Amino acid sequence: RTPAARERTTHESHSNATRQVASFSTLEGRERVGVGPCMSCCTAATRTAFGLLRRGSKLSLSPTGSAGSSRLPAVARRGRTSRVPAAFRNAPAFTSRGGLVSLHRRHAEVLARSSRNNPVSRAVSSVASPPSQDASVGDVEAKASGAEISRGGDGAAVRPEFCDISEEEDVQKRRIVVMEPGATVVCTAEEEKIFGTLLDVVKRYELPVTLRVAGGWVRDKLLGKHSSDIDIALDTMMGEEFAAKVNEYLQEKGEETHGVGVIQSNPDQSKHLETATMRVHGQWLDLVNLRSEEYTEASRIPEMKFGSATDDAYRRDLTINSLFYNINLRCVEDFTGMGLKDLQDGMVRTPLPPRTTFLDDPLRILRSVRFASRFGFSLDDAIVHAATDAEVQEKLLSKVSRERVGKEVQGMLRGPSPGDALSLLCRFNLFDTVFATSFPETLTSRLPPTVAWGCLHSMRCLDAVLSSLANSRGDASFFTKELTCEEREWLVLAAFLAPLEGGEFQALGHPAGKKTKFIPVVHTVVKEALKWRVKDAEAVSLVLELAADMRWSLIGRDGAELPKFTRLRAGKLLRRGKEYWRLALIMGAVLEMPGVVMLGEGDELQPWAVELAKGPPSAEPLAESKGSPLHAFSATSLGEGERTKDGVLSDEADAAKVRVSAKKLSVRVREVEDAVAAMNLDGVWNMRPILDGGKVMKLTGAKGPVMKVLTERLIDWQLENPEGGEEEATAFLASVSEKIVGEYVQPPRGA
User: Fold this and answer.
1) Most buried among 116, 288, 472, 669, by the most CB within 10 A?
2) Do the Cβ atoms of 322 and 138 come closer than 8 Å?
3) pLDDT (tens digit, 9 = 90+) per residue, 572-590?
4) How many Å separate Cα 160 from the centre of its chain?
5) Helices 418-427 and 485-497 sit at what angle, rounded to 10 degrees?
6) CA-to-CA distance for 609 and 418, rounded, in angstroms?
7) pLDDT one-digit tens code per residue, 634-660
8) Of 168, 609, 660, which is closest to residue 417 (Cα–Cα)?
9) pTM across the whole model
10) DSSP 615-673
């Protein structure tokens, strides 16, 4: 195919799904396709029918619903600092489920393999979704939470879903940054070149259009932050029409042009605007028309038409995202009259009454939470009331695709204060809507009504352990620097979902019996409720599964004798966890924290832990800064706990108990880490058998599945004898092989 043929391709959406089509490519040959809510339809009809069934010591689920007991059942004002521009470093870039854009090279092959396991992902495993496919009604800024430009392995510009912002200087210092009085937008040389070209297009073709940059780019510039997320709002033209003129102009000038992607509107999924996406001078631009809405008596879906900048500003999600930068006049425009003030005051507020804004696009509830936790801003009281409105929450469940929900949750967990975000979700009673949508009714009806607070307590215990670890090391950088953004994401989600570990779903079409297929609850939350990758679901499940074993084998149980640390025991656990063993070790400590339970194993929530979770975080503050690892600001948790007449927190004794345990367990975590280092076990998962398969077969005469048993026993010997050579290994294997082969019973076929 010629470059011209590659320049523009068309991909049909799923026949039974929402019609949302977009395709475009770059001259480098990287095609990108937009797949909307249809990504979930291929699996929705094949999932699960459930009942409850006790299976062994774990709580499982079956269609029969057999009987049996089931135990699975406004913030004080704070100091703010005006923004001083700080260095910003982009993190790995990710697309929505299935695609991959710019990833750590060490993960690329793994993700490609994971994508092939999903029938929808297979269709798009080599392409990336357009960054604005999930833009909400009048909300071109739907990805402005940090969607910066990073560079792929070939140097081509690619746009991630969310950038990791937890290493920003102000986040490290736990400072709440607001706009300085009189702040202005300062454009980079690259931005000046882009805007100059767009104005030249207007002049060359005498277009009666005013060009404005909308939303997040303006907000971040006024805060002194770096932003490469440029959304162009047009007052008299459609985005695709203007994009064609831009390419025509560039072609006349002999400059490089690129294909134009068009993301169609989809009112049923709160996507009312058609958006064009293109690259100009190596920078991604989104182009969309300003809009206004008219509702008819027969339908709540509005009719979209060209509107003024004021109309458009009032239909956006938040006032701080409703600001415009007028390229023609080179000035900031605040048509709501509230955006600049809220940016200076540190307030998250909607331009219209919150209930109206949320019913327009219910995803904006989650966006409000994400921005509040990202910047440490206060939430307007009216947002708090509207977020708990029954109709609004029902619309969030029925009207918004799971992919969009999952992407917002990912943005929360990759932000600087995931603890504040999860606290708000629990306070807004959004746990079921966000995390439990794939649960059968037979399960949700038996879940404790306080399960959300149990999950939040577990996450808060992770916060306490991480804070104690940071203070004991004198360095708070482990969570923000030594872990990748996706590892932080997995660790926080694993801690939050730990109370659900042990529960299982029985898949549809697999009746109870020897070959019954069960799907773990945690895996189903990550893969189905959030629509994250298979890799994410498996990583979170692995961390929790291995954490339970590390709790018993390395951390030790409260009141029990501390287990003896041996090279064999530790080495086998590390070989299972591979590079994620540290996540599992920390989670093992979290599982040992007071009040942390695993409902699937028959544990019960502790009332004191539930009440503690409803108050402020319990972790000891970081020594050199305010806040804690997961509560960077502790400003959006909306509540200060029950206070006695003396003004003391009534649950302070319980909070102290959590801090004492966290300090004790952090010491044990460090002891294990030191022992692993002393025994040179880090990387032990890469160790190969000292004798290859041919030598083992020749020595033992074994063939078939028993070879795996012999190889595992040989690895165990190597762990116990790190200085042993091939001669000693041969002697050992010769001494045990006869017994192993003689006792080995081959598993039945198909087992």
Assistant:
1) 288
2) no
3) 999 999 999 999 999 999 9
4) 13
5) 30
6) 20
7) 644 444 444 343 444 557 899 999 999
8) 168
9) 0.75
10) SS--SPPPTTSSS-SS-SS--SS-----B-TTS-BTTHHHHHHHHHHHHHHHHHHHHHH
